[in-house]
Amino acid sequence: MSTPNEPQNPFEKGSEPEGGAPGYPAAPPPPAGGYPAAPPPQPSQPQGYPSAPQYPSAPQYGGAPQYGGQQAYGTPYPKNSLGVWALVLGIASFVLSCGLVTGIPAIIVGNNAKKAVQRGEANNGGLATAGVVLGWIATVLSVLGIILFAVLFSNAEFRDAFVDGYNSSSY
Fold first, then answer.
1. I want to staple 79 with a disulfide (CB 3.0 to 4.6 A). Which of 8, 94, 122, 136 is the partner?
2. Residues 105-160 pLDDT 10s
3. Of 81, 85, 95, which Cα lies nearest the Cα of 137?
4. Among candidates 131, 129, 141, 147, which has minimal Cα distance to 99?
């Protein structure tokens, strides 16, 4: 018998209580006839058949991407900031009503962004196009507003009515 701290051999005679493992009934005896004998081993390759062709090993995959934010194979990051700035300037020309101040830069930056997309340096041509369109619309509306303002104030009757209405209003 061994002490509790030493490893015990589960196959040692006398390690199992009489009648099977504790909590389980004893195993029934094997049938009288026993099991049939194992079939004879088969040869690895039947006679008369050629062996299977050997396939080449799978190709190795490329290495892991480089650490440090560099893209693999030396491709530069796209210049997407130009398209974003064109869209921001185009939207600002409407929202802030600065048609000429932000509309013309939206056209210029948007065209530069579209050229970068054509050269393959950027991939956001849609933003660039939207910035150019918004810039043109804001510029045209600003020019039309300036022309309307000049025509209306060149009319003496309108100018006098406007000035009289402005001076007589009391808040």
1. 122
2. 999 999 999 999 998 888 888 999 999 999 999 999 999 999 988 888 787 787 77
3. 95
4. 141
